[in-house]
Each structure stands twice: as C-alpha cells, then as structure tokens.
Design brief:
The complex is a heterodimer of chains A (about 800) and B (about 160). Chain A is of the alpha+beta class and about 800 residues long. Chain A contains 19 helices and 29 strands. Chain B is α+β, with helices and mostly antiparallel strands and about 160 residues long. The longest helix of chain B has 16 residues, at about 145-160. Classes of the chains: A alpha+beta (about 800), B alpha+beta (about 160).
Chain lengths: ~800, ~160
C-alpha cells in the first residue's frame, strides 16, 4: 500500500511490528467501559460554582428590564450577571470569513444586550453553589420583554415586507454565491428530458449524549484561565477565549479529556461557553456550565434546513447533460463563530454533481437570517444535501427514461482512469474510484437477486425499494477551509515523539479524541514506524499546554493530517535512535534497524541492543558516549497538505427497505457502503466510523427534525418528541473498501469520518421512491415521516 | 424549602447513609454525593437511558428515581459491576468489537445488556436490539453493540457452568 521505503529496505507496512492496516483494540477503552472516564460533566474543582442561564422565551424581543434583586437573595447564589455587566469582561464577535465573499453578520454578545434574537438566547447568568440552587434563583429573575415580529420562514426572509433582523446589515441575506460552468441553457434545450423538483431538508441537530459542558477556572494569582471543555479544537478555543477576554493565548490553557460525542456540535464556540469563561474571570473562581437537554436543543447548533430547487437534463441514451440548483437555507440570527454559517451552503454549491462527468452546472445558494437557533457545521457539512439532490436527480432522470439506476451511474460517473481531474466548481480530484466502487457494491448486495425479490414481492402487495447513492467527501482540508479567510483555526497538526527512560514511547499530538480512535491510530502509526510493540506507545492529546500546536479532529482530518505528522515524527525519532545506536554499537544507521523494541542488524535481523538499554545509556550514562555526541531522543514534525486543498474520497451506498403503504412506516432492512478513504490504518475503526455516520444519516432521513412554529418556538426540544435512531429501528450495515491512497502524504490516508453521513439519507430517499414507483408518486422531502409517505400516497 | 431526609441504602455492596433533599434524583445522588460518575446523565427525562443502574436487581433509569425512593434498596452501578467482575466478559467483548466510541452511553448500555443476558441467555439479534432500544448511542450505529452482546451470549453458553 505504501511504496516508499525506509532505511532497511522494507516499506513501513511490511516491517515487523507493522500495525498499519490491522485491527487492534483502542487503548484506554477499559477506562470508559468501567465508568472511569473523565468527562467535563464529571469535573469538580475547589470553590467551583455552577452557572445557569436564564434564556429568552421569545424568538425576537426587546429586553426592557432585568430585575435580579430577589434572585440575589436566594440561598447559595453567588452572582446574577446580565449582558451589559458581562460585556465589560468579554468583547462581542462577528462570525465572518474574508474568503466567503459578501458574508455578513452582526456583533453577537455572550449574553444578550437590549434584544434577544432566538428562543433560548441567554439574557442572564445565575451563579450559585449548585446547579439546582442556580435554577431555583433563575425562576426569581424577572425579565420584561417587548415582543418583536420574528422572521421564521426562510422563503419570505428576503421579502420587502419582512422585518430586517439586524437593521445595520440592510437585509436578511447573510451570504449568496452563484456559480456557472459550461452552457447550462443550451444543455437543457438539447436534452431529451428535463427533471425539475424541489428537495426539502429538515432542520436537525447533533444530540450528543453528553451535552456541551465547560469548566472555566480563572486563577487570579497566575493570571491564567484553564478551560476544561469537550472541544474538538483546543487551540482554536484557546485563541478565541484569549482574543475576547483581552489576554494573551499563553494565559489560556484548554484541557480536553473524555468527550461524550461531538460530530461537529463541539467544534464551535458558543455564547454560553464564552459567558462561562468570562464569569470565571469576573468572579475569580471556577465556574461550571453543563447544558441540560432542553438547552441543548435550543442552543447546540442546528444544521441542514435547506430548500433546494434542482434540475437535471438527460438524453435517452442515459447521458446527463447538466445540473442546476437554487438552494436556500436559514441559519438563525447570527453567523456562528468562528467557522461561520455559510460553509454548508457553499459546500452544497461545490459538491452537487461532483461524481459525474457533465461540465454544465449552474448553482445559486442563498443563506438568510431567521429568529431561530443558530445553524452551523455538523457532521458531513453540506454533503447530505448535495448528495441527496444529485443522487435524487440521477434516479429521477433514470426513471424518466426507463433506465436502471446502476446503469445510469455507470454511464455518467467520472471514469476511474480519468484522474487527476477537476469538477465544474474547480474541485481537484487526485484519484477516485467510482466505477470499481459501484461494481463492488452491486456484487456485495446481490443487486440482481434483490431486484428479482422486489418484483416478486410487489405482486404480493409488499413494497420494497433499492436506493443507490454515489458520493464524494471532502477530507484532509488545507488552509483553504478557514485559514485563508482569516480564522485562526490551524490546518496543520503536530506530533512529538520521544523515547523515555525505559525505552517506552510517549507521543503528544494536536489532534483530539472523541471516540473515533485518534489515540489508537496515532499509536499504531508510531509503533509501526519505530518498530516497537504497540503496548509501549502512550498517546497524549487534548491539552494546549502539552501538545504541539494544531487543528484538532474535525472535517475528517485526524488520520490524514495528524496521522502523517505522527509518521514523520516517528521517522525522525527512528533516525535519531539509529544514529545513537550506531555510535554505541560501532556501526552505522544504515546497517541497523529497529524491530520488537530492540535495535537489530538490518541484514540478518539479529538483535543488538534493546531500546531500554539504549535509553539507559543516553539518559543515565551519557558519560560513556564519545565526546560531541548529543542524542536527541525526541522528535517533532508537523504536516499540512499543500498540493491538494482537500483530499477527496468517494464511495457508494445502497439502502434496501420496505414501505408499509397502509401506515406510512418505513422498515430499513439492510444498508451497504463501499468506501475509498485511501490507506486504512485500522479497518475496524474505519468501519465503525462509517456505520455510526450512516446511522446519523438514517436519523436525518427518517426521524430527526427541529419543529418550529410560526412564532419561532421550538416545539419538540426534548428527546421524547425529537426522535433519534435507536437500536430497534436500525439495520445491519455491510461495508467494503476500495483503497486509493493519496500520494501527497507518505501515509496515504484520507478521511472516513463523514462518508457514512454523506450518502445515507440519499440512499433512503431513492429507495423509498423506488418502492413507491408503482404508485406514480415522488417524495423529495426528509425526514420521511409516515405523514409525508401517506400524503404522497393520497391516503391522508 | 423542604428539609433534607435521612436515607440509608446499599450501593455496590457498601452501606451508605445520607441526608438528601426530597427532590434529588438518584442519578445526581450517585454522581454528586457519592462521586460515582460512571452513571451518566443524558436527558434527565427518562428517554436516553444513559443513567441506567440496577436497583434491587432490576434496571431503572436513575433520573426517574428519587434518591429517597432508593432508601433501603440495593443499588449497583457500573463501578460495582466492574469491580465484582460480573461483566468482565461483556466488557472484553465491547473492547474487541469496538462497541463504544465516545463511551458516554457505555456504562448504561452494559447494564441493559447484562440485564437481557440474565433473562434470556440466547437472545436473537432482534431481541438484543429490542432490549437495548431504550439506550441511545449516537456514535456506533448499534451494530457493534449488538455483535458484542451476541458474542458474549454465545461465549457464556459455551462456558461450562
């Protein structure tokens, strides 16, 4: 898989102790299995107080008065702080990036001042000795409001009669992007058929099982803030906290221990988290904020909520002639900070039609403000929209001309030997494998047999469907994502590897762990490259004081970027070890290798010196080394992709399901994924990332929707009314791989974290339409609730 | 404001005496008063299952039980089941199969799985899915968990009793 050789003549994947490509259990799982993890919600510090935020019941209102006098007298209450008081400690922010041309937003405060813009925005912080006492006191804070008209419907947000949420911005348009490639009008004019539909995607959210939580500990004596937070990007949080508290980054330490789920929910900086940092500084003591579930629904970023008008042109021979989309999304009252809320729509423009050969593509995306909770990047950002639109159009086009869904893809997917190549939106594809992936899927799922089964069951009035969805996924993002737009979000990662006094290996990495297996794959890479046993490698992450500087784990970047940094650091340490060994053994590095925790002869593999003995000499008897020899048993390397702004991956998914046309219920029977993420470091972990991602996509397809009423009230902000996938409804998911490593890095790994989510909903929508084909109805809206199914069937 | 009430119960085999407010739920009592933080809080309204513990042999959602209701009862948490070795094989199966990612649902998932295996030594995959359907996991997609429980059931059956 990896052709490049190390000294010793063997590539790193065939050396002894080669763990790359092998399934090994993650280290430290026992801690979590025994309930001995440390999540932020578990942390208690001396003198720690708890903050509860009083939140607006209105979607849009002027704050007239905040009277906390009674609350301040309640038992256990330390302080009640409103927006104006807190603004003296922390400055407001504006969530824009300079490369998202035209993107605008208004200043957002940690706690609202004068006006609230969504139901759930904090209007006061109540700090007490326990969360329960703070909640009691919150009930005694009296806030008077003057309700304002809320902007809730994205379709009318830009109308002249609709109020402008932020008058200083002039209108409710946050961002707009148009793109035109080829000659779309001519392509549609020449097409045999044109399919024209509107896709509707529900607003949903991440529902991490551990809510967002932060403990902020300002130590006035050290003038230093320690933030314990389950964040995916510790250095980003360090930068943002310092910037808005008016202190240096050096004065902020971010510690990230165990994280109870993230999925993009915990890659942002939220107003209540900023308020918690500021309260700690203001009150000079540790402050803990743990969102409850209602707060999570009202304040964790929401995602999707797109309405996308879309067209595809098709010739009778199956040639797709053009794609066109007009996408609209509503993002709440502010563009989220610091990653902005324009990225998802921008991704939709970038990705629609991406797997296919046609060069004719026209797109418009508009992002509008609303008085609803903020929206931002959630797992697979934009991909589920783009994939469902593209694959929905392809299936509808195939149905229009009477072609099989597999056949239309064979005729239009970019050929496997056409790389490198580009997309109509300028994306660069290094190496994708659409056709071999589809062929593998067809074989794995037994496509022909399923079609026969489907036909046989239809005669018995059982309606099953097959849905196919090819996809591309953006992974390993370079500075093109955020850095070029002025955000201090690092696209590079660093790894430091050192040999300790007993010959074991300590590895510090800037990527983070939220359960993906960052520690495991880092250890596998380092052990492999060094030639040591896996048990000897200990990985440290999630602490800005103790790791190199880097981006963290998000956007399917941990393995591809952090993994390559680990590989290069281990190579450097290996060379340093061999140089010392050469001196000790009166040999040369070229004649030596490391295997099974010992320096060996490169030729006959005879062990010469155990690493623990080498470490003993270096650390405790350096006097026995020749003069002028200063061993360096620690090496640090950083890595960022430069040649390709993103390492695109690809794959294809299939869904097999049954629609009960009497009740509208959908039963998922089976799901298949073929995925190409390049070099696979740990097959089990990759498969489990994909399975988990698929199920998140299935949740969006069938269940998940934040339901707002016309006044901007979220009506289902609890887990009884907002449905998530549970084990009883989910199918088994079969996974296979094609391996096309990126040649930009030595490791060759691309990302896999979002592939499952990217295509799952698209496959389900296509399967439902396939199942309902005899009824002559088409559904292009998710979640596919029984109500939507029955309406489409004309039963209600 | 109501006054604290004296309670006495057994937690993981140890006698515990405490004074608690009547409104305190068992999950918060275990976490905040006994520092047994392996019992997790996810939704606080009885849906997500993250706070599942065993009380007098039956699994319950600790967020829906008041601490005062646990008085004179025998409560077992993940810490107790781990230390006794009762679920060591199940935990090993979870580890081998990577049936956990973030781990936040895991202690409760193990509680629910062990409860099933105690009632039904040879559960089908559908029965496993059904029994665990009150425990939310956002990371895994459940298949690995079902596999691990199924593997444990098979191994226990093969083991001489």
């Amino acid at each position: 898989m990896m052709g490049k050789e190390l000294a010793g003549g063997l590539s790193i994947s065939d050396r002894p102790n080669s763990y790359i490509g092998k399934t090994v259990p993650r280290p430290n799982l026992d801690r979590l299995l025994q309930g001995r993890g440390t999540y932020v919600s578990d942390i208690e510090l001396p003198r720690m107080a708890h903050v509860v935020f009083l939140r607006s019941p209105h979607a849009h209102a002027k704050i007239l008065t905040v009277d906390a006098s009674a609350a301040r007298q309640m038992p256990g209450v330390t302080a009640v702080v409103d927006g104006k008081e807190l603004a003296e400690v922390i400055t407001p922010w504006v969530g824009v990036l300079s490369h998202m041309k035209g993107l605008k937003s208004a200043p957002q405060h940690a706690i609202a001042i004068d006006r609230v813009c969504w139901q759930g925005e904090a209007v006061a912080a109540i700090v007490a000795t326990s969360r329960a006492l703070a909640e009691d006191a919150a009930e005694a804070v009296v806030v008077t409001y003057e309700e304002l008209d809320p902007v809730t419907d994205m379709r009318t947000a830009l109308d002249s009669l609709t109020p402008v949420i932020h008058p200083s911005l002039g209108d409710n348009l946050a961002f707009e992007r148009a793109h035109h490639a080829g000659d779309v009008d001519q392509a549609f004019a020449k097409s045999d058929e044109v399919v024209d539909v509107e896709f509707i995607f529900g607003r949903h959210t991440g529902v991490t099982l551990e809510p967002r939580a932060v403990v902020a500990d300002w130590n006035g004596a050290e003038a230093r803030l320690t933030i314990y937070q389950g964040t995916q990007a510790p250095h980003m949080v360090q930068n943002i906290a310092a910037l808005h508290l008016g202190i240096n980054e050096q004065q902020v330490r971010v510690i990230c221990k165990d994280v109870g789920g993230s999925f993009g929910i915990k890659v942002h900086v939220y107003a209540d988290e900023m308020a918690t940092y500021a309260l700690s500084k203001l009150l000079r003591r540790p402050i803990k904020f743990v969102a409850d579930r209602v707060e999570s629904f009202n304040t964790d970023i929401h995602a999707r909520d797109h309405r996308c008008k879309a067209r595809v042109g098709i010739m009778r021979d199956g040639t797709i002639t053009a794609f066109e989309i007009d996408d609209l999304t509503g993002i709440g009252p502010y563009s989220m900070y610091p990653r902005t809320s324009a990225i998802e729509a921008n991704q939709v423009v970038n990705l629609v039609g991406g797997p296919y050969t046609t060069k004719n593509y026209r797109a418009r995306a508009r992002v509008v403000f609303q008085n609803k909770n903020v929206m931002c990047q959630y797992r697979a950002v934009g991909h589920p929209i783009a994939c469902a639109v593209t694959e929905g159009l392809v299936d509808l086009a195939a149905a229009r001309i009477g072609m099989d869904p597999i056949e239309i893809r064979r005729r239009n997917l970019i050929a496997d030997d056409a790389y490198p190549c580009g997309s109509p939106t300028g994306l660069k594809f290094e190496k994708l494998s659409h056709h071999v992936s589809v062929a593998k899927l067809v074989e794995m799922m037994g496509y022909a047999d399923l079609r026969a089964e489907q036909a046989a069951l239809r005669k018995k009035n059982i309606h099953r469907g097959i849905g196919i969805a090819s996809f591309i996924e953006v992974t390993n993002p370079s500075a093109a994502f955020y850095g070029v737009g002025g955000a201090r979000i690092s696209s590079q990662d660093g790894v430091a590897v050192r040999l300790d006094g007993q010959g074991a290996v300590i590895c510090q990495t800037s990527i983070t762990e939220q359960g993906q297996g960052s520690e495991a794959i880092t250890a596998q890479i380092v052990a492999t490259v060094l030639g040591v046993s896996l048990e000897r490698v200990r990985v440290i992450l999630g602490d800005t004081d103790h790791t190199p500087y880097g981006g963290g784990t998000w956007a399917s970047r941990g393995a591809g970027i952090g993994g390559e940094a680990a590989l290069q650091a281990a190579k450097a340490l290996r060379q340093n070890i061999l140089e010392v060994a050469g001196t000790i053994l009166q040999s040369t590095p070229a004649e030596l290798d490391i295997a099974n925790d010992a320096v060996v002869n490169a030729g006959d593999r005879v062990p010469r010196l155990e690493l623990k003995e080498l470490a003993r000499i270096v650390y405790f008897r350096p006097d026995t080394l020749p003069p002028g020899i200063q061993p360096e048993l620690m090496a640090t390397r950083h890595y960022v992709p430069r040649e390709f702004p993103f390492a695109f991956t690809n794959g294809v998914q299939a869904s097999w399901l049954e629609v009960d046309v009497e009740t509208g219920f959908i039963k998922l029977l089976k799901h298949w994924v073929v995925e190409d993420c390049g070099t696979i470091i740990n097959p089990l972990l990759v498969d489990e990332q994909i399975r988990g991602g698929v199920v998140q996509g299935l949740g969006a397809a069938l269940f998940e929707k934040c339901i707002y009423d016309e006044r901007g009230q979220l009506t289902n902000a609890n887990m009884a009314d907002y449905l998530v996938p549970m084990s009883g409804e989910m199918p088994d998911i079969d996974i296979a791989h094609v391996v096309s490593p990126t040649l930009e890095s030595e490791l060759g790994a691309k990302g896999a974290g979002e592939a499952g989510t990217a295509g799952a909903a698209a496959a389900v929508i296509n399967a439902v339409n396939d199942a309902l084909r005899p009824f002559g109805t088409i559904i292009t809206e998710i979640p596919l609730t029984p109500e939507i199914i029955l309406r489409a069937l004309g039963r209600i | 404001m109501t006054v604290p009430v004296a309670i006495a119960l057994e937690v993981n085999g140890e006698r515990v005496d405490a004074h608690v407010l009547p409104r305190l739920n068992l999950a918060d009592f275990l976490r905040e008063h006994l520092q047994l933080t392996g019992t997790h809080v996810g939704c606080e309204h009885g849906v997500c299952g993250a706070c599942t513990v065993r009380m007098n042999g039956e699994i319950v959602r600790a967020c829906l039980v008041l601490a005062v209701q646990a008085s004179a009862k025998c409560v077992q948490t993940i810490e107790g089941l781990s230390d006794s070795g009762e679920i060591a094989d199940l935990q090993a199966a979870f580890r081998e199969r990577n049936a956990l990612q973030c781990g936040y649902c895991t202690p409760a998932m193990l509680m629910a799985a062990q409860d099933l295996l105690g009632r039904q030594p040879e559960p089908s995959r559908e029965e496993i899915r059904e029994h665990l359907s009150g425990n939310y996991c956002r990371c895994t997609g459940y298949q690995a968990i079902v596999d691990a429980v199924e593997a444990t059931a098979r191994a226990r059956k093969a083991r001489p009793s």
